[in-house]
Structures are given as C-alpha cells and as structure tokens.
Design brief:
Largest sheet: 7 strands, mixed
Helix content: 25-40%
Structural class: alpha+beta
Order of helices and strands: EEEHEHHHEEEHHHEHHEEHE
Distance between the termini: 16 Å
Strand content: 25-35%
Number of strands: 11
Radius of gyration: 19 Å
Length: 297
C-alpha cells in the first residue's frame, strides 16, 4: 500500500466531570465521550526520502515535532525501524484548539494509517497503548463511538450508544488555554458536579430528553465567566430550538443537540446571522457499532 486516505473524526463531551487534582498535577476525570461525523482528512503517501513531511491547508499549524501527527508517525518509525518516508496532506476542518480533540484524532489517524501502510499488524488495543504516549485523548480517538473515560482520560470503557441526532457546532473567534482552565478550576465541598452516572443511565434507556437534562461540563464554571461569548452561543442555540447546548472539553466550542434536521438547519442559519461564531458546522452523531470495515472508513 503506497497511499491511504483517512477521516479523522471530531469528538464532543456529553458529560465532563473532574473528580480530583492529583499530586503530580494531573486531574482525574469522568467523561462521556462521543464521536461526530465532522472530520479532518489525511492523505498519506509513501516516499523514498526518510522522515515525515506534513502539508496542511492552515498556514499557522506546525509541521514539525510540535504537530501530533508528526510525533505519531515518528513513534512508529522509530519503533519499527521504518526507513521509507511519509508525506501527509492534512486538510483541517475540525476547529483548532477548540475542545474537540482535533490534534489527537489526527494523530490517531496517523497511527492507524501507518499501521495499514507498512503492514505493522498492530491491534486496535496495541495502537491505543501507543497513542497514550502522544496524548490522553488519542486512545479514545482510535476507539471511537460512545465511551466513559476515566483516570486522566486514558481509561476507556464502551457504553450504550448515543441517540442519533443532528449536532450544531459553533466556535467563536477566541482561543482558550486548557492549562488555564484546569489551573483555575475550583474543587471543594461547594463544587457542583455533573451526574455522570445519570447520563450513563439515560444512554442505557435511550432517553433523549433525560440525557439533555443531565448533560454537564464542570469546566464551564471557569471558561464561561472568563469568556461570556460562550454563554451567548449557548443561549442562541437554545433559542433556536436546541434540546441542549453545552461547551465541549475546555472550550471554546459549543455544541447543540437537536430533535430534527429542519430545526437544526434553521439554527445554523440563526447562528451565522448572529455573528457569534467564526466556524459553524451542522453534523451528526457517529456510532461505530453501525459501521463496517476499518476504524477510519
């Protein structure tokens, strides 16, 4: 195989709780992760020149070891002594630095693609074990679907699939530092935590209305006071008929869940007219249990 084209899918958090701050500085989390049909496209091509070369449609993205795609490729090249090189054409559509695991899912696609292209015969589990060396979200991006993530995000368990529905994505023209959010997160006896167990029960029952009520993201307590536009986007989505609207990850992207396509399409137009977001996408829930073939079909 000399060339392979891959879709690197975005994720949202249906629920995000931080359990505690560890002595090593990391935070233990409980999150319900969900894959979307919004994706970046990677085209990998073998070349005779050793190493990884990355070309991308965004001029501000690094194309060296500061890019997770590069690090993922070199990880496998070093481990398996691969002498040939790989040219990566990366077309970004997932908002950058947006709480949607854009960099992690690109790295996951790179691991998967290298495994296929060079016949490394690594299982999904073995790819996930290597992925955590790149970033905590990478194993989930290899796994995909609906999952409970614990620990620092690397302990994954498949759960009942998310109900299929339209999803509106809106990212404002701001950047949010994940480090800043976690450093300023208040965890004490007064902290109100999302009910992750209730969310898991809602998924088991396939109860869309209850799920929308029980969604929660503890990081909103930091991000929204510092970036009020996030709350404005949520309000706009709810006013346009979203059954629920919430920030994904540490932000600043907001997603809205809708009961029907027509309402979601109108909400997309309302969001564009409001001028609150730089990037607006209408997508849908991805459920890998209904898919066949490779994980990056």
């Amino acid at each position: 195989m000399d060339e392979i084209t891959l879709k690197a899918l975005a994720k949202i958090n249906l629920g995000l709780d931080v359990v505690r701050r560890r002595e090593d500085g990391y935070h233990e989390v409980r999150m319900v992760m969900q894959t979307l049909h919004l994706y970046d496209k990677l085209v990998l091509k073998k070349r005779t020149t050793p190493g990884i070369q990355i070309r991308t449609n965004l001029s501000f993205l690094p194309v060296n070891e500061n890019n997770l795609v590069y690090r993922a490729g070199m990880l496998l090249m070093d481990e398996f002594g691969i002498k040939e090189g790989v040219l990566v054409q990366l077309e970004k559509r997932i908002p950058v630095a947006a709480g949607m695991a854009g960099g992690s899912t690109d790295a996951a696609a790179m691991l998967y693609g290298m495994n296929q292209m060079f016949g490394l015969r690594l299982s999904k589990k073995e790819l996930m074990e290597r992925g955590v060396k790149i970033g905590a979200d990478v194993p989930y991006c290899i796994m995909r679907g609906t999952a409970l993530a614990e620990g620092i995000g690397e302990k994954l368990k498949p759960v009942a699939p998310m109900i299929k529905c339209p999803v509106l994505i809106a990212k404002p023209a701001i950047s949010v530092s994940t480090k800043f959010v976690y450093q300023n997160l208040k965890l004490d006896e007064t902290t109100v935590h999302p009910d992750i167990d209730a969310l898991l029960s809602d998924l088991e029952k396939q109860d869309f209305d209850a799920l929308c009520r029980d969604m929660g993201n503890i990081l909103e307590t930091v991000t929204i006071p510092n970036y009020p536009i996030i709350d404005k986007i949520k309000e706009c989505m709810l006013a346009s008929g979203a059954a629920a609207a919430m920030m994904s990850g540490s932000g600043p992207t907001v997603f809205g869940l809708f009961r029907d396509e027509e309402t979601a399409r109108q909400a997309r137009e309302d969001m564009k007219k409001a001028g609150l977001a730089r990037q607006v996408y209408l997508t849908s829930i991805y459920n890998n249990r209904c898919k066949r073939g490779g994980i990056h079909d």
